[in-house]
Amino acid sequence: MIRQAFRANPWAFLGPAATQALAAALVTTGLGLTASLDGVPPDNGIADLGIIFTLSSAYLTVLVVGVTMGTAIAGQARDMALVRTIGATPGRVRRAIAAQAVLVALPATAAGIPLGLLAGYAWWHGLAGAGVVPSEATFRVYGGTVPIAYAVTVGTSLLGALVAAIRPSRLRPSVALTEALVSRRGRGRVRTAIGVLLLAGGVTLAVVISGFDAATADQAGLFVMLAMCVGAGLLGPVLLRVTLPVVRRLGPVGALAADAVTARARSLSGALVPLTLAVAFAAFTVVLGTTTAHVTGVAAPAADRWLEYSGTGAYTAFAAVAAVNTLLTVMHARRRELAVVRLAGGTRGRTLAVVVCEALVVTSTALAAGAAVAATTLLPLLHTALGTWRPWLPVSWLVAGIAGTTALVFAGMVGPAAAALRRPPIEVAG
Amino acid sequence: MESVISLTSVSRRYPRGVQALRDVSLGIPAGQFVAVMGATGSGKSTLLHCAAGLDRPDGGRVRLAGQDITRMREARLTRLRRDRAGFVFQSYNLLSELTVRQNVALPVRLGGPRARTVDEVLGLVGLGGLGDRPVGELSGGQRQRVAVARALVTAPAVVFADEPTGALDPATGAHILRLLRTAADRDGVTVLMVTHDPAAAAWSDRLVLLREGAVADDGPAADATRIAHQLQAVAA
């Protein structure tokens, strides 16, 4: 079964593997920073940077690797149903899934650690160059890097895969076979409730922490943001529907796209978590910087800016890669669907236009959700620190942000769809 | 009268050297229901794919609904298929996440002619009340009827059916074949059906038998028992 899983969709696991490699890299960088900052006097103000970065990376990894691995496993529901039919016990299915999760995580982590060391080294040089750390301090590799990095990636990979496998491995085979063909249509009341709870909790926390001093609020803000992004992901099926009435007005292509988004709302929601994270992270840091400069009339010192932007850059890049990977996995599973549309008379151009419409729905939802999350965490903070409720962002940054998000979603959806449409439909659908 | 489907000396060789079709010539007039039979690997599916423009022959010419499709550009070919042809496959090839109505409306939404309303064709195939059910919840026979409805919604000149009853029991299969038969008799739709089931072939007007990629026999279709004998004679 493991072999079948890897052979049937080698590409489906590329997403989780890439995210896990990056996760290992982030953790390695964080650990390296922690070790290197050991010698720096605590009054420097960045002594905790390494630890904070490591913890945030680990937390982020749990989320993002969990989401990508979960999406990859969900694509195997039909295979799971088949092996259940021919006699595999639920336990056996879960073990096979666990083995896949570990098998993906091992090489990915091995690739990620050297990457993380390089990144840590480069970052350290950047910090030294910007005068944040004394130039004579050297970058050191933390002794426990390898076991810790493996523990984080293998652990999160396993967790994500097993959570995704709970439902398909427990079903009776007969139900499993039909279930594999029809994804659940229920609204998922529990899911929506948890999503609302997370969002409400996030808003409350954001208001509470805005009363703290700037540094603490800034750090706690990250966790509030993560909670709210997961909330947004859980509410994804609902959020994605908001734009659909508009899309349906675009004519038959829009209507087809709206139907597809409704049918695939759950799997697309998986991509919404990292996308919203990426948008929220970037928006939070950039708007904080530009508003502060706008209100006070002075730009933050170069060293501080460097620290802020490089840290946010790392998180944003990680979330962005995870988002593209999740979308790639989702689109890979839809090759047959695209072929059926072609067989029903859709030209390549028109079929692709449907996917473009879907991508626009995902992009606008992610932008709106990300902006809302960033605003919730940022506005109370701005009010406390600067006495203003009005964020300020140059139009060029706004345009760049929208263009960047659109490019990400298109790379994850339209790119693979265009590639899939190059093959004759009859070969795919049979 | 011009044939709706016409193949002239069509040959198709697959990359590994397998010759799927050898010099096949076949003309099918409007409103005829043709069954294509032959052993596994005799080239029946390749014949259907080439005739429908889903695959391109290496040699010879194919005309579909009055147009030469041999070297037609892909987008134009797709539009021709969308407007003039309908498809029914063994594996249904429906979008299981969408409702019956959404599946049937697909060709029209993709720009095909709105020749009949969705409700009209659903009534035709006996699925009047099921329009809003997701296709994934239907039985195999019901799914295949959805596929027939989708094939007929554009009032096509030709319906291509590749083992349409392959996954169905005889009674359910007969229902599907009756729908195809009616389409040919009442609306003058040309039907090209590939099958391995003599009982299914008995519903047709004309039987084409293939052996090793060439036409071994071509004549009026008899009853199922007779067809089974013919098939055995060709395979031997």
Tally of helical runs of chain B? 8
- Give a short account of the largest sheet of chain B: 6 strands, mixed
Largest interface: A-B, 31 and 32 residues
Domains of chain B (count): 1
- Overall pLDDT metric of chain A: 83
* Beta-strand share of residues of chain B: 25-35%
Low-confidence region ranges of chain B: none
Give, in order, the helices and strands of chain A.
Answer: HHHHHHHHHHHHHHHHHH
Domain ABC3 transporter permease C-terminal (chain A): 51-165, 317-419
Transmembrane segments (chain A): 12-37, 49-75, 96-124, 144-166, 193-214, 220-240, 272-293, 313-331, 352-375, 395-421
Signal peptide (chain A): 1-23
InterPro entries (chain A): ABC3_permease_C, Membrane_comp_ABC_pdt
Structure commentary:
The complex is a heterodimer of chains A (430) and B (236). Chain A has 430 residues and is mainly α. Helix content of chain A is 81%, strand content 0%. Chain A is globular and about 65 Å long. Chain B has 236 residues and is an alpha/beta fold. Chain B is 36% helix and 26% strand. Chain B is built from eight helices and ten strands. In chain B, helix 5 runs parallel beside helix 6. The relative contact order of chain B is 0.19. The interface between A and B is medium-sized, with 31 and 32 residues. Chain B: This is ABC transporter ATP-binding protein. Chain B: Pfam families: ABC_tran.
